[in-house]
């Protein structure tokens, strides 16, 4: 029996917990920042506390004699929880602190790709001085402004989308330094890209990389891609593991960018990257309208949320998640069966009515889990808490539902019907996975190609 420690308490971690629970011989122990009922139901033992406190996490792991740890969110990874656990002799699915900087420091990521000549890097510059960044913004075309450090997926600002013009871009640069957004006191300014974004996640054992099906997330808060950015309102994947606008050639080019980056990290830092690598790409063009192809938006050092909910339930029968994680740890992924069912998925997040602007927390809500399951949908609790036996919201995303079927359209119907089994001050995006929205993506890509 393998004792597995899971760190994290969101929807991503609930999906990981459900996956581990299907393992033939695994016992789950969990550290959460809130009481996620889905993770609790999968766990032999759990504790609630600060998941970035490396001493707290490693003490719980040692006390319960866990064999391996799976780290869900980026903050514990960037804070060095893997280093602390490994010092106690506990193997981890997740990179050490220095390697986690592929997400924790966007400047490091871009400089690494430049130095090793890795394909797909947008034209960009890194600045530690706001005045120098402002001069650069004045000298180039439309730009994207990114704080170098972690911002929970909400720090990137694009001229023409979030920012009206270059003056607003320069004001945002000043705000990044003044408010220490991202904490690193560095900013990345890069070319604005035009195309469609998509995600490829992969298991990585330091040498071998096993990619998963492509997923497209939807960041905007409201139907029609309107409103502010969020942590992600939902996502979909297709039965062929590509996307309606993404062909096999560009999928393989994207995977090569990931493989080359893993090799570069090993050479640069002298240590193998082991864990999950998440590549967010854009298929399209930048300032040079002729340079069509995959461009890197960012790397993350962990599963996506909600993107991992699309892929983990697709692991084929006979694929044991804990065996895969052992393959990651021991550099033997090439000897472990890792295949995915040819099914489409649609994930929809149900969120507080006021999300993402904040507002009242601890709002009670109910869910008819039986009704969701009878539809053939899956349910993943995210940022929830429990007051006694009552489920309550936090200020972030509440719960996700997932439809699986032979087509995106059927998976969307299942997910949408599942949303009817929730009661409370909640809302969701109804258009994710619909034919109308998919056609907009396809038409957008055709216009760029032409």
Give an overview in words:
This protein has 450 residues and is an alpha+beta fold. The chain has three domains: 2-97, 3-Layer(aba) Sandwich (Rossmann fold); 123-191, Dna Ligase, domain 1, CATH 3.30.1490; 193-450, ATP-grasp fold, B domain (D-amino Acid Aminotransferase, Chain A, domain 1, 2-Layer Sandwich). The protein contains 15 helices and 25 strands. It has helices at 11-21, 37-42, 54-63, 74-78, 81-87, 97-104, 106-115, 130-139, 166-179, 248-269, 307-311, 321-330, 369-374, 408-418, 435-449, and strands spanning 2-7, 26-32, 45-48, 68-71, 91-93, 124-127, 143-147, 157-158, 187-191, 194-205, 209-211, 216-217, 220-222, 226-229, 234-237, 274-285, 293-300, 344-352, 366-367, 378-381, 384-387, 390-393, 399-405, 422-423, 426-428. Strands 12, 15, 18, 20, 23 and 25 form a six-stranded antiparallel sheet that branches. Strands 3-2-1-4-5 form a five-stranded parallel sheet, sandwiched between helices. Strands 6-9-7-8 form a four-stranded antiparallel sheet, sandwiched between helices. Strand 10 and strand 11 (209-211) form a beta hairpin. Helix 3 packs parallel to helix 5 (81-87). The longest helix is centred in the middle third of the chain and has 22 residues, at 248-269. The termini are far apart.
């Amino acid at each position: 029996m393998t004792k597995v420690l899971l760190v994290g308490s969101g929807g991503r971690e609930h999906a990981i917990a459900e996956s581990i629970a299907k393992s033939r011989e695994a016992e789950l122990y969990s550290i959460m920042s809130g009481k996620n009922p889905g993770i609790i139901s999968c766990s032999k033992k759990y504790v609630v506390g600060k998941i970035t406190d490396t001493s707290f996490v490693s003490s719980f792991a040692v006390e319960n004699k866990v064999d391996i740890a799976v780290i869900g969110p980026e903050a514990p990874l960037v804070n060095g929880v893997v280093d602390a656990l490994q010092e106690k002799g506990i193997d981890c699915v997740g990179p050490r602190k220095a390697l986690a900087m592929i997400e924790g420091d966007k400047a490091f990521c871009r400089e690494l790709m430049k130095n090793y000549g890795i394909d797909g890097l947008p034209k960009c510059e890194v600045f530690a001085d706001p005045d120098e960044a402002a001069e650069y913004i004045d000298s180039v075309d439309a730009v994207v402004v990114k704080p170098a450090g972690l911002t929970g997926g909400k720090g990137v600002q694009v001229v023409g989308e979030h920012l009206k013009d270059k003056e607003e871009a320069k004001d945002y640069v000043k705000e990044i330094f003044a408010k220490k957004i991202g904490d690193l006191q560095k900013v990345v300014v890069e070319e604005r890209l035009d195309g469609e974004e998509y995600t490829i996640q992969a298991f990585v054992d330091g040498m071998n990389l096993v990619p998963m099906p492509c997923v497209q997330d939807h960041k905007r808060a409201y139907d029609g891609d309107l409103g502010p950015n969020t942590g992600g309102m939902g996502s979909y994947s297709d039965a062929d593991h590509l996307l309606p606008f993404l062909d096999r050639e560009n999928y393989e080019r994207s995977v090569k960018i990931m493989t080359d980056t893993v090799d570069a990290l090993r050479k640069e830092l002298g240590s193998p990257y082991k864990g999950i690598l998440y590549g967010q790409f854009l298929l399209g063009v930048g300032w040079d309208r002729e340079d069509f192809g995959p461009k890197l938006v960012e790397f993350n050092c962990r599963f996506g949320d909600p993107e991992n909910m699309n892929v983990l339930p697709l692991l084929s029968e006979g694929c044991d998640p804990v065996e895969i994680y052992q393959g990651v740890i021991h550099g033997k992924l090439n000897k472990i069966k890792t295949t995915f069912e040819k099914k489409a998925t649609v994930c929809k997040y149900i969120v507080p009515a006021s999300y993402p602007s904040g507002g009242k927390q601890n709002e009670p809500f109910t869910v008819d889990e039986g009704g969701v399951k009878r539809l053939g949908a899956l349910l993943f609790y995210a940022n929830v808490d429990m007051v006694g036996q009552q489920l309550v919201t936090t200020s972030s995303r509440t719960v996700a539902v997932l439809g699986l079927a032979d087509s995106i359209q059927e998976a969307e119907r299942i997910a949408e019907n599942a949303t009817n089994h929730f009661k409370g001050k909640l809302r969701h995006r109804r258009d994710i996975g619909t034919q109308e929205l998919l056609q907009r993506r396809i038409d957008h890509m055709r216009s760029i190609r032409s």
